[in-house]
């Protein structure tokens, strides 16, 4: 049990983000439901964003905004600025996937990838 | 260094053009669009001349100092493709200027795609590339399902979700790389990678990023999005032409560019060589099995991209420049083939290869255009495909890889023997013929360029890229005999095997992975590349 305890104590947010990424990937590999796969792909995107946010993380750093005293360590502003963009892109792509899903759902009446393919071939 | 036009003009220009002219009345709109396209092409030509006979252009956006700013760069690798993109979009716009589907929203999306392609080619910053790739992905998805008929929405959905997974891999890889190097600028990443104490750390971000890039370049086993997108039944032919001609080359370009960034640390050349062979072989096999002419062309694109990747990774300079030339050549002949295929489908009202007959007699000009495209792609003597394939074969000479090239050439010929059956025979009675001077002029222009690229192969490579090679061997008796022997073999195989086993081949195209299987394939590709890269470091 000491090993597990050590492992859990040393887990960082980055490790959790990697884990989340592969959970999302697993979901996309195994779920037949279209909505669930869209959720899974969204999870992968969010995990990648979270991992990016934690790169260059320094404990106790302050955000680099006005009024921050000069003598404390400052957080790296680049990941935050970039990830705002990535989050917006991710949201819009997920929204687009859901809109397409609605179209497909109305026309073929199924939320299952396999049944959908069968109905497309008829 | 910052003289000349600002580079962001080339990225912003198409979007602004589409947005501003949107509000003009119809007549002024067409003129404005034509002139705007010509102006963009002029800027691209000027940039090409400046870089080719001067030095690479680098610009830092918004006046920030180097290292902080987003860098735009135009160098010898990217400007030929920039020029190709601008010319290609202008030509396809003229081609379709009178077509029914060309409404303002469609043209705006079309120009957005041009901006996305130019943006990737001109970025020197990894995150910028990511953002622009996502923009292009959304644009392509909307263009695929623009008419919303049949299964186009499904095709677009699979396309966008698959690419979204690829983009998640890319984000994660970029984050890893940023954690290791602390920069996002490609040149700075390259410098810092060389100084790393532990080069093994780069392997994971390399595999993550390259998985996404290999998907963009449609390499096996990640190409299942390409036939859906390029051969989509509802997508207008100019969209297919642009996707196959230029957009898929963005993936190939990124493959070259990013491998150059990683080369001091990770070198997966032989991995991509093998993948290239499999891609090329599977591409023509699946292409022969198709019955839809647009899908045949789409799978042929997969095959040709495989050939390009093979040439790039053979490791000899002849093969490398042959492949670089093949990128341009493929854009020309596949663009022409898709454009003429669109006209043929409209005239005959069907997409089935077996029902279209006698194009030569009913639509002589389109028929000649198709024939030139077929001669180009099969590498017939005097046409441009022969030059690039000659150099790739020259670079592989004395290597077992050469045999693989013969196989790919044979497969391409077989596929296009099947495709060329639409040209001959007795045409059906009802064929709607629409005369359009723009269509004829653009088809003629493409055809002439293909012929010129074959006759002046060596000088054209020297003009566009720089290295001087004698292409005299292209016209040698040996090459001539080889081509006709391969052609005879392909005709025989078509006559005795493909035409008879049509139904059994049909079973081959039933094999289409669903979304879950696609995800598994992506994961397997990532795992394979990771394993290879770990062992190569």
What does this structure look like?
The complex is a heterodimer of chains A (122) and B (537). With 122 residues, chain A is an all-alpha fold. Chain A contains 5 helices and no strands. Chain B is mainly α and 537 residues long. Chain B has 22 helices and 2 strands. Chain B has 3 domains: 122 residues; 175 residues, no CATH class; 224 residues, no CATH class. Chain B is globular and about 70 Å long. The interface between A and B is large, with 41 and 36 residues.
How many E strands of chain A?
0
Number of domains of chain A: 1
Order of helices and strands of chain B: HHEEHHHHHHHHHHHHHHHHHHHH
The DSSP helix count of chain B reads 22
Radius of gyration of chain A from CA coordinates: 20 Å
Total number of strands of chain B: 2
Report the portion of residues of chain B in β strands: under 5%
Distance between termini of chain A?
A: 57 Å
The CATH architecture term of chain A is Orthogonal Bundle
How much of the sequence lies in strands of chain A comes to: under 5%
CATH topology of chain A: Helix Hairpins
Separation, N- and C-terminal Cα atoms of chain B? 36 Å
Quaternary structure: heterodimer
Average of pLDDT of chain B: 83
Helix content of chain A: over 70%
Q: Largest protein interface?
A: A-B, 41 and 36 residues
Structural class of chain B: mainly alpha
Q: SSE string of chain A, helix = H, strand = E?
A: HHHHH
Radius of gyration of chain B: 22 Å
Largest sheet of chain A: none
Shape of chain B: globular
